[in-house]
Write a structure and sequence with these properties.
Blueprint: H1 6-14, H2 17-27, H3 33-40, H4 44-56, E1 60-66, E2 71-76, H5 78-97
Antiparallel strand pairs: 1-2
Length: 139
Amino acid sequence: MDEHCPVARSLACVGDRWSMLILRDVQRGMTRFDQLRANLGVAPNILSGRLASLTAEGLLEKRQYSERPPRQEYVLTEAGRDFIPILTAIAGWGYKHRGEGPISRLVDEATGEAVQPLVIDSANGAPIGTRPLRLVQPD
């Protein structure tokens, strides 16, 4: 049942392209509406709706950066920051399976090395996807 599934619950709040790209761009320092709109090329009504939804879901929060005129910017909450590794894992999948032609890369600022995302089970260190897993439903 989808109501018990953490994937379904998560996709309900961030499962569309624009929401994920907004989170990516906010993490990169594009915190203002006009910056996001210019970088994403998204219609203002769609951007407004996604920002409102991400704020209501607790992934972003609005902060006032100017009183005159009143202006707001968007910053990641703890939940938003916790989503960044998910975006990095999606990017890793994209490098491997959709990486034809020119493609941007994430690099470690300290070393300049390309990031090689890997999702592991923190309980045993095994990479996810290398061993069978089973879903246990709640009672």
